Automatic annotation (TrEMBL):
Belongs to the ubiquitin-activating E1 family. Gene3D superfamilies: NAD(P)-binding Rossmann-like Domain (3.40.50.720), Ubiquitin-activating enzyme E1, inactive adenylation domain, subdomain 2 (3.40.50.12550), Ubiquitin-activating enzyme E1, SCCH domain (1.10.10.2660). Keywords: Ligase. Pfam families: ThiF (PF00899), UBA_E1_SCCH (PF10585). GO terms for molecular function: SUMO activating enzyme activity. Residues 28-127, 549-1047 form the THIF-type NAD/FAD binding fold domain. Residues 908-928 are annotated as: Disordered. Residues 742-990 form the Ubiquitin-activating enzyme SCCH domain. GO terms for biological process: protein sumoylation. Pathway: Protein modification; protein ubiquitination. One of its GO terms (cellular component) is cytoplasm. This is Ubiquitin-activating enzyme E1 1.
Amino acid sequence: MTGTTEVSWGSWLQSWKTEIDEETERIDRQKAAFGAESVARIKDLNVLILGAQGVGVETAKNLILSNVGSVTLWDPNPTQMADLGTNFYLHANHVGMARAKACMGDLKTLNPFCKVQVLEEEAITEKVLVESVATGKPYSAVVVTSLSILQGDASLTLAQVNEVCRNNNAAFLLACNHGVSTSLFSDFGLKHEITDEFGEPTRLLALSNLEVLSGDEIPELLKIEGIDKKSTVVLLTVAQSDHGLDDGNKILLDDLRGPLEVWNGHRVQIQRVAFRSPTAAKVQTADVSFQEILKQPTKAVLKNFEKQYNYYLQQHEQDETNKDKKFPVRTITMFNRLAVILDDEHHNKLPEGLSVADLETGYQAGGLLQQVRPPIYKEYSSFVDTLEGSASPAVPQMLRGDHWEAGKGIELHLSVAGVLEFYQRHKAWPAIHSTEDGQKLVDIVQELSKKRQESGNGGCWAQQVSFGFPTGEPRDLDEVQIRHFAQLFGTELTGLCAFLGGAAAQEVLKKTGKYTPINQWIHHDEPALVHIDEDDDTSNVSPLFGSRYDHQIAILGKDFQAKMANQRVFLVGCGALGCEYLKGLSLMGVATGRQGKIYVTDMDRIEVSNLSRQFLFRDKDVGSPKSVSGARVVKEWNPQMNITALEKRVGTDSEDFFDDDFWEALHVCWNALDNVMARKYTDRQCLLYSKPLLESGTLGTKCNHEVILPYRTSTYNDGKESDENENQIAMCTLRSFPFLPLHCIEFAKQAYFSDYFEFGPDQYETFRKDMTGFFEQLDSMEPGEQLKSLKMIHAYIELQQKGDGGGIDLAACIRVAFHRLVEDFRNSVLNLCHSADVMEKSSGKQFWTGTKRRPRPIDWTQPVPELMEYLYCTANMYAVVWGLDPVRDRATFEKIVTDLKLEQPDWTAPSQNVDLSENDDEADSGDAAAEAEKLKAELYKVDPATLKPAHPHDFEKDDDSNFHVDFLTISTNLRAWNYDIKASQRHAVKVTAGRIIPALATTTAMVCGLVDIEFCKLVLGLESQGRDKFLNSNINLAAGSGNFTTFSPDPPVVVKTGLSTGPKRFTSWDKIVLAFRQDEELTVEELVAYVQKTFGVTVDRLFAHGNPSDKALYNSVDQQKLKWDIQIDDQGKPHVSDGVFTQWPQIRMAVQMLGRLPATSGQRKVFENQINNVKTALDKTKKSFENIFTGPVSKAYHHVYRPEEAGEKQDYFDRVNGKREYVLLDVHCQTAEEADIHLPCIKYIVSRDEPEEGQEQAVKRMKVA
């Protein structure tokens, strides 16, 4: 059937394995980001890291987790207590021990499949740089993690290390954090090959038509770059509406059939296809009609537009005012077409055995076009040239865009060069807080800048910069920035170390050719963090007494450290992001004071695939709660931390735990989440309690973070992010006409797995437990879903009736699996082909053209391994449904199948043809309703008490023992075989069906480091200085320097009220606050009146905040019902207000009949009863409204929103709202002219505390905030 038939059945799947390949499982998410080929190349990388302080250990950690071949760490310097503030693998008992050796034990435990070694040399020489001590092979990359790590006459200098790397084809990285400054330098040598520039998926296009045009056949309107009347052009029409390719791109041809098959595997260069159209015609390319026209052959399309072109041309020429004016035309691209020009210039030649005549007549159907990215070669300059020579950037790149454009990187770039010169002159590095050393560095930098300016050779010197461009006009250097660089040179900050460690590690991985390296230098600076007084008062930052927080105190101050100790932080999530944040909190000393507290919550358990990036966890932790394990680890690092691990979901169902007291006591909420709904919820809570929120997310090499400040920035909910998939595939394509492997995967997941193992068992269980409730919910389903549900339940019951005494064994499960095999991969295919043949015969038109592939049925009489594999996975999954133990031994299973003597039933043509329409709605047959009613009648006779319970599957992609991914893989590939589509690898099925988000340790560490720094700003209280002190980011580590983007947070989104007087605008942070004593609170009527009077509006509805359902405390429509009346006078004549008919239209007939029937008619009683029933309902509605309207607001809220049925929901409502002294309300209102008015939510507070004796207190206090 496929290439796998040469292998014993199932050897290409997973569940049967007795031993799991843990290395493959660990890097599962990484493989989803990089691809299998790049992951294999990463395994060949051997990396030397020089320096084991913060940046060094972060870089090492990320590379080890990335599963490189080996990491060698060098740092013979003795551990100091201050190193514990940035190196999380150093402990107090390591003080005095060589740093590299001290942290080696923990680094080795990160990944048993990566060789981790210490380079035990006192100095770095050319000899040790050439060969890895771990593998004996050359180093692929050398990473220097501090400007000061190479010192002494025995060691090479930075420049010399760089030259050795260039001479030995090793990448050279410098990643250093000194104080509040960071610098990242990357050198990949004289010639570096980039095989994948940006890391974006290549396009896979399905061919739907192929045409050949040459000579005079080429229409005049056709516009293709590089063609003339001598050209031969192959036009490829694709099924997708937009191919997304550009002129000169290359594609790989595949899946062509017949005489065109010899073209498979060849690369061709393509051009875009367009045509000229009169500007005046204003062709709307987005219209459906235009898209439909493009589905025709190219000649037909252009013939259609040629008439239009000639008409407008004639109009132009006949207008005398256009004399000597050029006929205005525009170029319209046909985005569903590509051109292959057959000539030497475009490097397109037909292979031997394929002629142009074959192309003209040989295409029938099929064909795939895979975008190919040719390699790019780049040359990089040396460290010396980029720092001091002609290659030195005039305007060095800064991480922050506005700082880059303003030229603020000049000081940093010169400071790096200056501090190296400082060491050469003084044989020492600048001392912490030394005013003298600070001035010495300023003098050196001034000297360097002046020298470069006078040389006239360009490079970096102090000049004016305008919008990122140097002007050549000299300017003064920022001496304060340079002095701080010197005074804080000997310090690191954990957040900046994490940022550099992630970015540097990702640069190392680019040695494989995957992704684009940065353009050599990127600097960053956080001057707002520096708390050194310019008047030399250093009492807040010194003296330093050997604390683990010495570096942090030296930069941010002792008062900062005291605040940090008493921070109360809520960390939501303990996955990859959460582990990094816990690390940062531990190193910074958060919640080490008596009032400090960290809460971390996560409901998930640790899985093997987590270990490649969630670095707090080890093999022994698999199966344990993430939050508990993470908290335990960081508590061991910093025993003074006050941390509580929770396993609670944060949402509307846990507000009895995460209550007002909890939220109000927090200083910050910190999201480490992977889904939009949870992020939106925590954002809403931060809005309610006016708390700052730190938000971040990653997707492969892409990441972003956002700082949300109360009243100062926009919020997460102000955006429009959604979890919904925007690229849905048409159901008709999945159901009947797949042409890509993706279509087979999606159908296997959405139809086979979902229907058989989730929907079916779930519906059956609903029926078994509550027959009445089942039939009630059945009526709410679409007809097709109804019939499917009924059929499945009927089949489950029938299966039990066939068994011995209602029992179900594995043999029964195998029979069900065999039935599904025959139905899904044989009978459905034969039915589809039969219906298509009937259509072809009646219409005379070929049906299987373009992307429509004629499928072929499987045949059990010619068994192949895949068929047995399907039975194995499917039957075992049915066994789990019925509570049976799976039979994992394949020999045993095969014997059971053999003994069953399964026979393939004969196929007979269906009485009704399959729906061949290309719409997304499954056509229901005319007999569907009758069949559903018949099945309902049969089910009504069943006694649910006699039925065996079923257990629906819950899809879990990371459990290889549950058969889920195996079932999807074999189902996908059987369907692919049906349609002659390429088979899919198991991992590709797992990633697609499991909606696996590519995740990398490098990206996670980098973005979390940036967020750690923003947290420091919050503790410092920098929000009082404005949002410009904070940074948001949007970074793609794959795409080079241009995609390192940071910027100030956006201001809050402003909502216009529409009021003519009073507040004109507000933001989502604002609330209308109304506060009362309990014995003096407002009624709903008074609250409505207050809002109407205060804002000059008419209130339509008053309802719970964020809950715009039909329920409301006040609805103006209900108030109008107070005026409605229903009466029957003495003569028996009904009098009904007009409004009643809008609410109860059914009594209109009763009113009419009472007006016609004589008083003696016996039928009058029936209609009188109908009217009286409505009158009773109306009176009840009036009474209910009046009770709510005239009662206190707080009681009205509870009356309307408290669940009616006693039980857990009611108890939960009472637990949550019983503690609260407020309710949140939204109001819909309008002006007298019926213009909509927008107001903030109302926070209505009722204080339960009695005023103290003698205390003056206003009975009522109202304010608008």
